[in-house]
Amino acid sequence: MASTPHQNPTDQSDLTSLKGRIPLLGLTGGIGSGKTTVSDLLGQLGAGVIDTDLIAHQITAPSGKAIPLIREQFGAEFLDPSGALDRGKMRSLVFEKPEARKSLEQITHPLIRQETIRQALELSQAGRPYLVFVIPLLVESGNWQGLFDHIAVVDCSKDTQIKRVMERNKLTLEEIEKILEAQASRAERLSQANTILHNEGGLAELKPKIQDLHKKMLGFRTNQPTSS
Ligand code: ATP
Q1: Domain interval for residue 71
Q2: How far is residue 183's CA from residue 29's CA, in Å, rounded to a whole number?
C-alpha cells in the first residue's frame, strides 16, 4: 500500500543490471518543452529510445494492458467510446482527488516499468550505443539518482511551453497552467541537469546541440570497461 503520489514508474533496481554495460541518459523537461523532439533526433542518430510517456499512452489505448484494471477500479465511464482511457475525465479526477491519482499509478506504474525494462534490454541487446529514457517526471520522482550516467533537461520559457501545447491543440490554457503548477519548477529541474538543452528557437538551432549530446554519450561508451 505504501505509494507516494509521484512513485516512479520505473523502479531503478530493475534497471541496474544495465548500469556500466551501456551508457544511460535520462531525458526530461516540462510539458511541451521538446522532449519528444529531442529524443526523436537522438533516435535518428542511433540511440535506443525508451519513452515512458509513449508507453503510458500505449497501455491506456484501446485493448491496452491497463484498460481492464482501470475499468474495474474506476468504472467504464472513464473509458471513451473507442475503449481507451478518457484522459480528460481522468485528469480532472486526479487533480481533485490525490487518492485517485494513487490508485491510477498503482495500476499504470508496474505496467510501465515492465515495458520500460523489456524495451531497454531489447535495445541494449540490439547493439544501440546508449539508451535514452524519456521521463517527464524524472525530477519530481526523486528516485533516479545514481542510475543515469547523464541527465539532460530540455528547457524553454513557460510562454513557449503554453504556446506549443496550445498549438498542438491538446489542452486548454487553464489545463496547461494546472499541469505546469503540478510539475517541478524550471529552477528545480535545471538544478539536476548535466546538460541543459535550450529549446526556445527552431529545429536548426536545436540540432547541433543534439549532435553534441550524442557525441558526449558515445564518449561515455568508450570510457566504459568492456564487459566479457
Ligand atoms: P509533452 O510533455 O507535452 O509530451 P514534449 O516535451 O515531448 O511534450 P514535444 O512534443 O517534443 O514536447 O514538442 C511540443 C511541440 O512543440 C510539438 O508540436 C513540437 O513539434 C514543437 N517543437 C518542439 N521543439 C521545437 C523546435 N525546436 N522547433 C519547432 N517546434 C518545436
Answers
A1: 12-218
A2: 10
Residue of 27, 36, 54 to test ligand 1 pocket, by largest number of atoms within 8 Å of CB: 36
- List all residues 6 or more positions away from 34 whose beta carbon is below 8 Å from its beta carbon: 154, 156, 164, 197, 199, 206
Total domains in the chain come to 1
- pLDDT tens digit sequence for 10-69: 555 578 889 889 999 999 999 999 999 999 999 999 999 999 999 999 999 999 999 999
Ligand 1 close to Cβ of residue 31 (< 6 A): yes
Q: Examine residue 223 and state whether it is found in any structural domain, yes or no.
A: no
Do residues 102 and 5 lie in contact, with contact meaning Cβ atoms separated by under 8 Å?
Answer: yes
Q: Is the CB of 168 under 6 A from ligand 1?
A: yes
**Residue 139 belongs to domain with CATH number:** 3.40.50.300
- 65 belongs to a structural domain: yes
Atom of ligand 1 nearest to the CA of 37: 11
Atom of ligand 1 nearest to the CA of 136: 2
Domain for residue 1, yes or no?
no
From the CA of 36, how far away is ligand 1's center (Å)?
6
CA of 205 to the centre of ligand 1 (A): 14
In a domain, 6, yes or no: no
The cell for 110 is 508496474
- Per this entry, what is the length of the chain? 228
